[in-house]
Each structure stands twice: as C-alpha cells, then as structure tokens.
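Final report, Chapter 2: Outcomes

The project's central promise was a pipeline that accepts a single protein chain and returns its three-dimensional structure in a standardized token representation, suitable for archiving and comparison. That pipeline is now operational. To close this chapter, we reproduce one record exactly as it appears in the project archive, with the input sequence first and the structure output second.
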Amino acid sequence: MALRTVAEAISSGCRIGRGLGVLYSSATRFPFNLPQPKVEKPPAAEPSTNLFVSGLSKRTTTEGLRDAFAKFGEVIHARVVTDRVSGYSKGFGFVKYATIKEAEAGIKGMDGQFLDGWVIFAEFARPRPPVPPLNNAPPQCQWGS
C-alpha cells in the first residue's frame, strides 16, 4: 500500500518531504532578519594640492611616480614610501602639485590607471591625526612652580 502511494505521488509530480535539499539549500528560512554590518566610509578628504597614491608596485620609484604624474601639471614633490630595512616600496606614496586644479587633473588622469603593471588609486591626501602623548612622556606642567 505504501509503495503504491509513493509511486502515484512520483508519477503525478508531487514532492514527498523536503529531504536533504533543505539542509543544502542556499535559501535561508530564518524567522528573523540577520543584522546588517555597518560599514562607515571615512569622509571624503578636502581638496588640496597633496595627493595620496596607493596600489604602487614594489618596483615603483620616486622618479617614476613623479614622471607619471608630471603629465597633468607641475609636480612640486613626489615620494614613494619605502621600508627602512629592505628599501622596497610599501605600496603607497604622495604627490604634491602646485595648484588644486592640477591636483584634480592628476586624480582624474591617474586614478585607476596602470603604473609599472599595477592599478593605482589617487585621491586627495587626508591630514595626519594628532599623535597621542606617550605614557612615559614628562608632564606638561611643573609641580610646585
């Protein structure tokens, strides 16, 4: 009798139970919503003549960075940040232009472009945050004076 019921159900196209499909299904059946991660992007940097360039190759030199960005305006200063021990690039650097208009042109021209085989990203540099005082630093005021 049971086999007849199963055979009829299969021939009519009905599914019997959910089986292992439920365990391995990509559809979730949670009765609640999972919390969405809150990713806050830092605010956009204010326009300045100083650019932050990331995604640099280990082979990129300061001269190569200067030459690549000189196509878009007068480069006052360019620097690839390097490791103190190995001397290789850390993968980022800074370029300073004479005017903000030239810096904007440098961003438009070089952001997302290839330099030494790597895609680089250019944006306005953010100012450094203030360094907190060390715990071992001498006190700022003199006691008893």
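Archive annotation: The CA atoms of residues 17 and 103 lie 65 Å apart.
This record, like all others produced under the grant, will remain available to the consortium after the project formally closes.
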